[in-house]
Structures are given as C-alpha cells and as structure tokens.
Amino acid sequence: xxxxxxxxxxxxxxxxxxxxxxxxxxxxxxxxxxxxxxxxxxxxxxxxxxxxxxxxxxxxxxxxxxxxxxxxxxxxxxxxxxxxxxxxxxxxxxxxxxxxxxxxxxxxxxxxxxxxxxxxxxxxxxxxxxxxxxxxxxxxxxxxxxxxxxxxxxxxxxxxxxxxxxxxxxxxxxxxxxxxxxxxxxxxxxxxxxxxxxxxxxxxxxxxxxxxxxxxxxxxxxxxxxxxxxxxxxxxxxxxxxxxxxxxxxxxxxxxxxxxxxxxxxxxxxxxxxxxxxxxxxxxxxxxxxxxxxxxxxxxxxxxxxxxxxxxxxxxxxxxxxxxxxxxxxxxxxxxxxxxxxxxxxxxxxxxxxxxxxxxxxxxxxxxxxxxxxxxxxxxxxxxxxxxxxxxxxxxxxxxxxxxxxxxxxxxxxxxxxxxxxxxxxxxxxxxxxxxxxxxxxxxxxxxxxxxxxxxxxxxxxxxxxxxxxxxxxxxxxxxxxxxxxxxxxxxxxxxxxxxxxxxxxxxxxxxxxxxxxxxxxxxxxxxxxxxxxxxxxxxxxxxxxxxxxxxxxxxxxxxxxxxxxxxxxxxxxxxxxxxxxxxxxxxxxxxxxxxxxxxxxxxxxxxxxxxxxxxxxxxxxxxxxxxxxxxxxxxxxxxxxxxxxxxxxxxxxxxxxxxxxxxxxxxxxxxxxxxxxxxxxxxxxxxxxxxxxxxxxxxxxxxxxxxxxxxxxxxxxxxxxxxxxxxxxxxxxxxxxxxxxxxxxxxxxxxxxxxxxxxxxxxxxxxxxxxxxxxxxxxxxxxxxxxxxxxxxxxxxxxxxxxxxxxxxxxx
Length: 813
Hints:
By secondary structure, the protein is an alpha/beta fold. It has 4 domains: about 1-210, no CATH class; about 215-520, Glycerol-3-phosphate (1)-acyltransferase (3-Layer(aba) Sandwich), CATH 3.40.1130; about 530-630 and about 640-680, Arc Repressor Mutant, subunit A (Orthogonal Bundle), CATH 1.10.10; about 710-810. Strand 11, helix 13 and strand 12 (about 350-355) form a beta-alpha-beta unit. Helix 3 packs across helix 6, helix 7 (about 215-225) crosses helix 14 and helix 30 (about 730-750) packs across helix 31. The N and C termini lie far apart (about 100 Å).
C-alpha cells in the first residue's frame, strides 16, 4: 500500500503543478476567511463526484488561502480518512458493475459514535470548469464545460484545457458530522449526510448553471404543437377558413421569432467584452443585496424586474449575475432590438423577443404564452421590465400589465400540478451617474420622434466611450414570493388553478405591479449626481454658494440615515466636497471663483439634464420635502394641525412616487425629530417652528421646494376639476386641460423642464384620486362630492398667499 501511494503521488505531482500554473479562479465564494472553520476539528472536504482535477485544484486553493489541507489523511482510531472525499458516482462503468452508492463518512461516524466528545466538520465544495448551461445537443456541450451531465475523464481533461481560465469555486457552509447522528446509528446518519449533500450540490448547480436547456428547435416544436396552441389553430382555422397546416407553420415561424438560443461561448464572450466595456465606460459597478438572490436561486424560479432607465440595463444585470456566480436570465426584449448583427448576439446571450402588442393576433399570443410558461415551468430565471419602455423622465413609470399577467397565469397553471412552483420576483434598482441617452431623452420629452434602433445608432454610441460616465449602482430590493403574496390578496386562488382567466386576476395584476415598483424604489441608490441635482434644481436662479451646497448635501445624507426613504437605500461613499468634485468632473456642474467664496452654477442645458437624475431619487425625500413646504409661510405647527394638512396630499404623493407604505401618523413624528436634530426646526411646548437663523431657514426652504412641482400640478388639476360641476369633464379632457395649465405655468415662471407637464403624470394623478375614493368615473365622466372640495381646501393651506395667487391666475387664464 505505501508503494501504491508513492506511485500515485509521483503521478499526481506534475498534474498538480500543471493545475497551479494553468488554472485561474474567476470566483471563489465565499471568501475562504469567512468559512468560520474550527481549527481544532478535523476538516473533511466533500466534492459532488470523483474528479482528480477538482481534488488537485482544491488542494492548491487550501494551501494558497491558509485553509486546512485538502491533501493527506486524518487518523481516527487507527483508521485513515482522506481529507478530501467525493460522493460516489451513480454512473455504471463498463469495467465494473454498479456498486452500492454509500457516502464515505461511515468510518468517521462510527468513530463519533464511540467518542462522544469528538467531531468532524464537512465542507461541501462545488467546482465549475466553465459555466455552460446544460444543453442536450451541441459540439461545445460535448467538449468544453460543466453542465448537468457528469463529465468523463477525456471530457474533463478537455474542459481543464479549454476552461482553465474560467473556473468558479463555491464553498458550502460547514456541517458538523455529529449533528447527523441519532439513535438509529451511523449507517442511517451516513445515508442522511449523503442525501443532504446531494440536495446542496443540486441547488448549487441550479444556481450557477440554471436548469437544463432544451435544444432550441426541440423547444419551438414543443411550443407549436402544445394543446393550447393547437386549440387556437383549430379555432382560427374554422373562423378564417384557413388551412390548419398553414397556421401550424405560422406558429413555428412565431416560435423562431420569439425564442432565445442561449449558448455558452457567447455568454463567455459577452463576459469578457462587457468587462472591458464597463472598465472603459464606468469608474466601477457597485452591487448590493445579491446575497438575497443567492439564498433563493437554488430552489426558486427567479423573475428579475429591474427599473428601465437605459439600454445598458439589459447587459449590466446579466453581467453582474454571471460575474457573481449566478445564471444569467432569459431577457424579454422588444422586437425592435432584433436588428442585424445585434439581434443574433442578444438572442445567443439569452434574449427572447416580443412584439409591442398582441392585439388581434391570438396565435402569436398563444405561442408567446406557451413559450414563457415552459421557461418558467422548467425554472429558468427571467428578466423583464415592468415599465415597458425606458423612462424618459427618470421617474418610475406606471407598471404595464402584459408580462405580469402572463407570469401570473403561468404560475397558476403550474400550481395545479403535483409539485407547486416556488417563484420569486427580484426587484432591482439600477442607478447611473450619467447615461448614454441624455440627448435623445431630452429631444423626445420636447416632442421629438423616437429614433429607430439600428446598428448605425450603436456605432454613434461607441463614439461616446471616451466621455466620463461615473459609476453605476445595482441594488437588489426585497424579493416578493408570489405564492405567499397571492395567499394574502386572493385567498381562494388555489381553487382557480383550472380556470385560465380567474376574475380576481384583474385586480391582482395592478397590485402586483404597484408592489414591485415600490420595492424597486425602496432600493434606490443615491449618488453624487442625483444629490447635487436635488439641491441645484431648488435654487431660484440655478446658482448656489459652494459652502451652502456642502451643507445641503450633508443634510440630505443625514436625513436618509435617520429616516430612510426605502428599506434598502444606499448612500455614496465620501464627503460632500468629493461629491461636488465628481459632478464637476462629469461636466454637469460649473464652479465660478469669487473672492467671498466659490459659486456653483448650472446652464439651462445642464439643468434639463439634471432633472432626469433628480427624478430617480425624488421619492426618497417626499416626506421631508412635504414637511418643509408646510413651514414655508406658516412658521409654527402643532402635530395635529400639521398632520391634518398633510393627510390629503400624502397618499397621492406615495402613489405618484411609488413610495413604501408609510402611515403618516407613524412617519411624521420621526421626520420632525430628524429636522429638529439638523437645526431646520425648533421644538417647544406648543409644537415645532421655523428656525430663527437665516441660514437654517434658507436650507429649510430649499428642502421644501423639492415637492413644490408635484404640489403645483395637483393644485392646477384640482382647480380644473372643481371649476366645473361634477360629471362635466372626462378623464382625457381633464388631463389635457391640466397639462396646458402646467405648461403655461412653466413658461411664465421660466421653468424650462418638459417633464414638469408630462401628460402621463396627470393620468397617474387622476388614477390616484380615484384610488383614494375622492373621484369616480361613470358614463365616461368624472364625478366627485364635497369630500374632494374639503381635501383640496385643506391642501391649499400649505401654499403661501403669493404662490396661491399666481396659481389661481394661471388656472383662470
């Protein structure tokens, strides 16, 4: 036996040296120092299947990171147990018959049973040589990378050569072997340990590789011949007197138009390309909250729902997930992106394409629904944008029902099976310090036509890569588990799994979209650009002393620390002076030297650009701005009076800005205390009052102007509505009249900001009034009663007489 071990060691030595020189780990998770191993206990590393390359790499890593050695043996009662073991392979070999698949912990468990004070710690280790999603066919899947098929010796050798520079190592949480022992003895504990570890390894492979992918042709054919698609073909053939065979071919054509064709070579190419792009384009990509995703990825179907601010969103999230050891999702992309050169690349990176409207195309709708259902049913992660299109105003847009409805119906359909799915929505906030589409958004907000995407447009974008774009933040919000959420809002939903369109789904989809939008906003990232925008756009002449800017930036950061506007909000690193320098470097702010102190100014063009960045995070300061506005002309308030004046506009603002649900009576005292601690209010026995110092009063006024545009829009809309008898105006007429008044106000006040009078904002405001019960629609007309007049009168008390007079002049022409 010593001679055999010596010969094996001699054979392994050159292989070990080759592994050390050739292999590079692109990801080791978690950091080895975070494993919290007990140095006094023997450590047993466990691999999911026997593989010499894995064992040699693990040995090299353990030495490099100061972990317990993965080479050698532990002596237990005269028995020797290898430091690195593997669960036995379940594959039958030609040269040996299938053996009993017993985990290699029996000796250690028998030792622990005989020695009550002893213990052994197991560390499961998953090693991925490349990350090809499993696919049943394809030359690359036969040769190159890890997939759901266990690799043979030749294939593993090729994989080491091909993927040696793209290896991921995932350590599992240490497991105490003694915890497996019970009265049934070591044999049962051995089987239980093997079962637990197999479940762990299977979940890890699902998290990293995703489910097994069908060949694209096989998947499309399965979709086109599914019972639901065949039913629609039969109905359409009878209705339109067409050949079913012809409609069947059309269904196949739709499937080819829609389906993605995710391939590992393209994923790996895109990883390298995007890594270079981000390094060239941005100063860094900061990711927060990804641990919440990793905790779910092994046993949940994940649907990523990011906000949509830029075309970069598509690429950025997939890159971040791939880089951090998660399977990139299949992405729903508009058919406008399926252009020459770009479309095929996106399709192979996981994009599937959909038309903007399914109206009057029942066969296309059936094919798309079936394709989406099959992706979800098999557990593939998905990504789509609930806003539909990119936000030109920088705000969170009203969620569109289409993809949410299809996802919900697919989930209900799958829930009728024997194993109900576990599906979680993952809200993601993506924040930019500067976006590529600045100029096009401004043009479109001013009425310009949206330009069609084309390869030529992409070349124009590449010409901007030399410009500075700052940093990017990717913040993961609180996941929404669909099953428990449905239990809360539609308790009998499980009884309707056989019904394709249950009645409650019409109300559930808007509530789901609203909840996801709020969770996205609750994970917003504050950065130097949007913080500076929040301050500069409240100044009367777009100029401010540098010293006051620093104080106001510090105030905004302090308010978020004390009363965060969302549960997962992040603040930028550094101090206010550093933030100002960052915005100056991006060319979005100018400094004018003065003998008495520098002045910071913005041009009209810069002001229009900064509106977009302010709107990204305006919701975080909604309550602070509203409270500050209330002290604008009334220097003193007690809590009861202040709450009464803020109650009418507060629910409207929370809906308009998609704020986390915060009862005013609970949030208001905390905000007053925060403003008091920052010197912007002073508390006495009678309540709160404005500060006497002029500087602090100016800071309070700047904070109050944050909410002034929203309050002015509401004032003008209510003036238009209440100026007519109930039932006189329709929804469209009211929105149009309000937009005209607001545009007039913008021109008279020199506020050159197209988003201020965006038609969508008034449509949303009408919806909010209707949701609060102050407005209702009957016979295509809007009706109200005295409750709305009373609420409007209460809100008007917030405005100072001069501002109220100006708004009345505008509203009455």
